Amino acid sequence: MAERIVVDPVTRIEGHLRIEVDVDEKGIIQDAFSSGTAVRGIELIVRDRDPRDVWAYVQRICGVCTTTHALASIRSVEDALEIKIPKNAHLIRNIMNGAVFLHDHVVHFYHLHAFDWVDVLSALKADPNETSRIAQSISDWPKSSPGYFKEIQTKIKKVVESGQLGIFANGYWGHKAYKLPPEVNLLAVAHYLEALDWQKEIVKIHTIFGGKNPHPHYVVGGMATPIDINSDNAVHAERLMHVSQIIDEAMEFVHKVYIPDLLAIASYYKDWTYGGGLNNYLCYGDFSTGDISDVKLYRFPRGAILNGNFHEVLDVDLKDPEQVKEFIDHSWYTYNGKEGSIGKHPWGGETSLRYTGPKPPFKTLNTDEKYSWIKSPRWKEHPMETGPLARMLVGYALKREEFVRLIDDTLKKLNWPFEAMQSALGRTIARGLESILVVQWMRDDMDALLANIKNGDLITFDRTKWEPETWPKKAKGVGWVEAPRGSLGHWIEIEDGKTKNYQAVVPTTWNASPRDHKNQIGAYEASLKGTPLLDKEKPLEILRIIHSFDPCLACAVHLTDVVSKQTTNIYIG
Ligand code: NFE
Ligand code: MG
């Protein structure tokens, strides 16, 4: 007889996610259900608004991937109106998106995900001399003396002795699934604290190019970033040098802290290969070396992989009405007033809310019916995983040299077969590896920007098609972005200068989606199946797998449930 275990809310993520799993008598997960438990409806509030303003509304979908929705939005309007942006604007947008990647990936690794692998309390037992020796053997990062680690240990001790664990409260400390020696746990906690400091630096790139963070400024047609190297009132030489320096420091942090820690931790967990899942991967692609409309020039190449067939990468077309479609058979929405659906491409898509779930307090969701505020996006009717693992595997399957080298080197270091990449740990490693790529692209694009400016090109905005009188009566466009958590698309329909319909299909919508019209499960759900839980009261393995996707439910369901405000509640039902 299967038992239903509920984790709600999943913490150390953005937004409200509930996971229900059925486990057999041996504690192995037989079935899983992912539910977004809040709904927001931002797609509805942009209707009838000026398409040039929409980015500023939809950017508020999320404060984590804080620029991605603005970027997807302006790209959708530019696509609809056939606006080409100046080279400087493209480079600045790339650098800003790169900054989001690095910020999100480092924060995810150290602050949202690490404690699924790292036991803070064990760090108290560490010998700081040995931590220092390990640190120096994997990196020449300067903060690595025995005294430094002793200091960190004393800090943790004080927190623990105070009885108020603060940021370290509610962990499953002492759980048998933790495998790191105390010394490596201490190293990871030290870098948890260092990464907290570091993450506030990288976002300064947004404040320089976009005026602020979170939610920097954009403009349809380019960037609202006046550049004049001799002016005090524009982005000038000193500020450009500041961005350049932040990129160099980020490069160092990635290579000397993030990656060595990632591989050191992974080496203790390499036998824990659960959490793979669908084996279907989707990447829209981004970071073009030229124009965004030229897919051939994307540094994250576009493509789809089905059933783990890495010999064939399938073409993806976001404008084809048969490719990306959202289904609502198990989501609290209706299409044309009906509960079931045939699936809608986002042009002509619909956001009509209808909650048909159990009323709180309830023990479990009715997972045979509708059970989530997340829709089920499907590519050619297949559920897909998107995100770092998908990007790295699509690049690998296309035999892009830098992807192959990074993955093969890592597999060699870990003595892992390629298939092992298709796991929670593989996903976490892929996130680190793509950070190596992204920070280099930031460096390259910053160099290109500086060279362009030096050549006298200071243009960041093209106003040719700014006035609505220049627009066709009807137009539709799609803007895509590779966001930290995966492929993001915004689809807009413009009529008479206004936004007629707007649909966002977001990375976490893909990954956290519930079942669809064919009862096919989503990526989170698939990734949990078959995983053994060592302790059903403390389902650390569920957190480990779900966190490996870096969930963002604010994005996925784009209102908050004002009736019930539940705190952490994990029970066996
Ligand atoms: Ni709210 Fe987001 C990213 C987008 S969501 S974090 O990355 O787009 O999945
Ligand atoms: Mg949507």
What report would you give on this structure?
The chain is an alpha+beta fold and 573 residues long. The protein folds into two domains: 1-50 and 275-410 and 463-572, Cytochrome-c3 Hydrogenase, chain B, CATH 1.10.645; 83-268 and 422-461, Cytochrome-c3 Hydrogenase, chain B. Helices cover 38% and strands 14% of the residues. α10 (388-397) crosses α12. The longest helix is centred in the middle third of the chain and has 33 residues, at 237-269. It is globular.
CATH class assignment of the largest domain: Mainly Alpha
**CATH superfamily label of the largest domain:** Cytochrome-c3 Hydrogenase, chain B
Radius of gyration: 23 Å
Indicate the proportion of strand residues: 5-15%
Given helix and strand content, the structural type is alpha+beta
Major β-sheet annotation:
4 strands, antiparallel
Outline, from the CA principal axes?
globular
InterPro entries: Ni-dep_hyd_lsu (IPR001501), Ni-dep_hyd_lsu_Ni_BS (IPR018194), NiFe-Hase_large (IPR029014), NiFe/NiFeSe_hydrgnase_LSU (IPR050867)
Subunit structure: Heterodimer of a large and a small subunit.
GO molecular function, one term: nickel cation binding
Binding site for Mg(2+): 43, 62, 552, 558
